[in-house]
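Aim 2 progress update. The chain analyzed this quarter is reproduced below.
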Amino acid sequence: MNETGIKRGRRALPAAVASAGRGAARLAGRAVDICVKPGLTFLAIERERAGFTALYRDYLLWLAALPALVKLAVAFLRAPGGGRRFAATLSGAGLDYVCVLAGVYVLALAVDALAPMFGGERDEDRALRLCAYALTPSFLASATGALPGLAWTSVLGVYSIALVIIGLPRLMRCAGERALGYGASAAVAMAAIAFAIGVLTSRVLPQS
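Predicted C-alpha cells:
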C-alpha cells in the first residue's frame, strides 16, 4: 500500500468509528424513547419510511442480538476454557437469534392480517415497524433475564404487549376502543410464535 492509500485509510477510520457511534446512539435513543414515551415515539415512527432492510439493518439485528450476546458472555465466564457446554450455548444462542428475527416478521404478518377484523388498515410495512419497536422491552428483558440472579426481569417483557396496544391506533389505523381486543389477538400470536420457537430449539438442540 502506497503512502496515499495509508493516509486515506487513516482518515477513513475515524469517520467509520464516528458513524458507528452515531448509529449506536440513535439505536439506544429509540430503544429508550419507545419504552418511556411510546405515544410520541409511535407518532415519529408513523412518519418514517423505513423499509424491511433498513429496519432490520439499523435496529432489529442489533437489539435482537443482546440476549444471545449476554448468554454467551455468561457461558464464557462460567467455562472460560470453552468445552461442550459453551459450544451448546453458542449453537442455542445462534438458533434463538435467527428464530427471533424470523418471528418478528411472522408476527408482523399476523398483525397485518388481523387489521380488517378490528377496523384497521392493512399495511405490512407499518405492521413490521410496530412489531419491531414494540418488542424492544422483550429484547431488553431477555438480555437482563439471562444474567445470574436476574431471571425475574424477563417478566418485564410483557410491557411489549402494552406497547403494541398503544401503537395499533397510530400505525394500523384502528379505532382506539378496538385496540385492546386487537392487542389481545396480537398477544396470542406472540405467545404462539414464542412457543413454536421454543419447540424448534428444544428439538434441534435438546442438550442446550
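The CA atoms of residues 44 and 182 lie 22 Å apart. Residues 3-204 form one domain. These observations will guide the mutagenesis experiments scheduled for the next reporting period.
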